[in-house]
Every structure is written in structure tokens, then in C-alpha cells.
Amino acid sequence: MSKIIVTGAAGFIGSHLAEALLNRGEKVIGVDQFN
Fold this sequence. Notes:
By secondary structure, the protein is α+β, with helices and mostly antiparallel strands. It is built from 1 helix and 2 strands.
């Protein structure tokens, strides 16, 4: 299991990437900037 940072995690691509990584058993840290 790896720890992976996903930037733009609230966006379309970032959220799908984070979900796919979580389904693979990876540890995911999601980062986004709302302004």
C-alpha cells in the first residue's frame, strides 16, 4: 500500500482517480483549493 497525494481531488478527474486508487487499496490524501 502506497500513500498518494491527489491534487484537484474535488474535480472530475481527481475524484475519479482518488476513488480508483482507494479501490486498489492505496492510501489517498486529497488536496484542493476552493476559492
